Amino acid sequence: MPVLIAHRRVLVKRDDLCGFGRAGVKIRKLELLVAHVRARGYDTFVTLAPNVTNLLHDLQEVAGTFGMKLRACVADKPNVPAASRQAVFSGIDHECRLVGDSRIEAAVTLAGMMLRSRSSGERPFWVPPSIAHPVGVLGAARGYHEMVQQLIGTPDYPDRVFVTGCTGCTVAGFCLAEALSRATGHPPIRIHAVQVHPGALGLRIALLLQWTKRFLRLPRPVDLHDILELDDPLPGYGFGEFPRAVVSLCERASDEQQLSIDPIYGGKTWLALERWLDRAPRQASPLIWHCGNSPQWSLYLGPTDTPTRARGREWPNAMTPGRRHI
C-alpha cells in the first residue's frame, strides 16, 4: 500500500491485515511454531511476556484451535498499575501469572511452570518472547520473501525496508531472507531495524541467526555487513517510554494514512523513517513494515519528555542513532 509522507511516496507492508490475531507478523511465526511442536509431540506452550504483548492472545487462539494448553508468565515491564494489568490479561483463560519486574522472580516462576507441566503429564515447549526461536526467524523470512515476490520487477521494488526491532527475531528473519534473495540475483535491499527495547539488538540478531544456521544446518553464516543498519531514534528512552511527539505522530498516521500504530513499537519506527526521509535522496524507495498495533498502549508508562538515562537510570545499550552494528 503506497502512502505519502512529507510529499514522498512510501510503501507500507500491511501485515496487520492478515486476518488473524492482533499482529500479523505473529501468524507467520505461529504457523511454523505449531508445525514444529506438533511434529515433536509437545502439547503445552510455556512462555514469558512483558506487559506490552499481543503474543499471549494469539497463542491462546492457536492453543484452542489445536487442543493445546498455555502457561504464561507476564513480567511487569514496563511497570503498569495492578488493576490495569489484571484488565489487560483477564481474557487469557489458561494459566497466566503476573509477576514483578525481577528477572529472578520471572525465572523461578517459569521453572515452576515447566516442572508442574511435566509432573502433570504434559509435554511443555518453551516459547521465547516474540517467538525468538529458529522457527520464528523462518516465519519472518517467509514474510519477507513474500514481499520480494510481490514487488520484484515492478517500479515499487524498495531499496530499504524499515522494521521494528525488539527481540530481534523478525529482523533476523528479514536478514536471512535478504541474504538468500541476493544470492539468487535479486536487487539488494537494506534492512533498517529500529530499536524499541534497550540492549544490544545487533548482538541478539547475530545470535538468532547463528542459532538458525545450526538449526537448519546452513553451510555458511549470514553476512550482515551490507544488509543491516540499526537505528535508535530515541536514545535513553526505556521500553514503553516515548515522548509526546511520538503520540502526535501516531495520531497523524491515523488521521492521514488510516493506520493504527502505537508509540511503543510502530510509532518509533515511523519516527525513524521520517527522519531518514529528511536526508535521503529523492529517488530513494523505502518500505515500512507495519506489524500491527498494541491496543492498550495508553495503559503503560506513557509519554515522558525526560529520557530514562537523564533520570539517572542507565539501560545497557550498544547502539547510537543511525550507526551500523555488525
Describe the structure.
The structure is a single chain. Helix 5 (134-151) crosses helix 7 (201-216) and helix 8 packs across helix 9. It is globular, with a radius of gyration of 19 Å. The two termini are 31 Å apart. By secondary structure, the chain is an alpha/beta fold. It has helices at 24-39, 55-65, 82-89, 103-119, 134-151, 169-183, 201-216, 244-257, 266-279; strands spanning 2-5, 8-14, 44-49, 69-74, 95-98, 124-127, 160-165, 190-195, 228-231, 241-242, 286-290, 302-303. The chain has two domains: 2-24 and 132-311, Rossmann fold (3-Layer(aba) Sandwich), CATH 3.40.50.1100; 25-131, Rossmann fold. Strands 1-2-11-7-8-9 form a six-stranded mixed β-sheet, sandwiched between helices. The chain has a four-stranded parallel β-sheet with strand order 5-4-3-6, sandwiched between helices. It has a two-stranded parallel sheet with strand order 10-12.
Number of DSSP E strands? 12
Distance between the termini: 31 Å
Summarize the biggest pleated sheet. 6 strands, mixed
Strand content: 15-25%
**Computed Rg:** 19 Å
CATH architecture call of the largest domain: 3-Layer(aba) Sandwich
CATH class of the largest domain: Alpha Beta
Unreliable sequence segments: 311-326
Side by side, the strands of the main sheet go 1-2-11-7-8-9
Order of helices and strands: EEHEHEHEHEHEHEHEEHHEE
- Helix share of residues? 25-40%
Number of helices: 9
